[in-house]
């Protein structure tokens, strides 16, 4: 039991480092950059509040677990904004390999049973093939959009994001898991772009 607790607390202490990883997205009031720990918490709240937007059969408790875990790899890799490098950096082969190595290290701090469970949830989120993961990914994509809308366009100007890029990089994934949510958000984002 003592070894198990030592492993669990080692993981929890390491997870605290996520609070120091800054994201490109600012808080809704634009006062400062959001950190990845705040982002993960906010997404868990998004899942609870927007559960009625999920497809039938989606397990919101599993979605919350995925969202709490999904960015822990950023402790090692940092946050890579979806619009950086004209949209090519976020899902690059090098980034995916770095995140997999980070997952090995970070989840490997846990006792084997928890390490396997958490890693499986992280991989499910990344693959975005199950109903739970599709909805979780939708929320992960929509939250920064809402942050940008709240603070007058936020990082869209920084990254020269076009309406077409927002639709292809974000809208498609949000609509896949929460079509009505994307319809609502898209109309609010439209004023920041010529066409959307």
Structural write-up:
The protein is mainly α. 63% of the residues lie in helices and 4% in strands. It is built from ten helices and two strands, in the order αββααααααααα. The protein has a two-stranded antiparallel sheet. α2 packs across α7 (131-150), α7 crosses α9 and α9 (163-177) runs antiparallel to α10 (179-189). The radius of gyration is 17 Å and the shape is globular. It starts with a helix and ends in a 7-residue tail after the last helix. The mean pLDDT is 94.
Number of helices: 10
Determine the mean pLDDT.
Answer: 94
Poorly predicted spans: none
Task: Write down how many β-strands occur, each being a DSSP E stretch of 2 or more residues.
Answer: 2
- Across the major sheet, the strand order is 1-2
- Percent of residues in helices: 55-70%
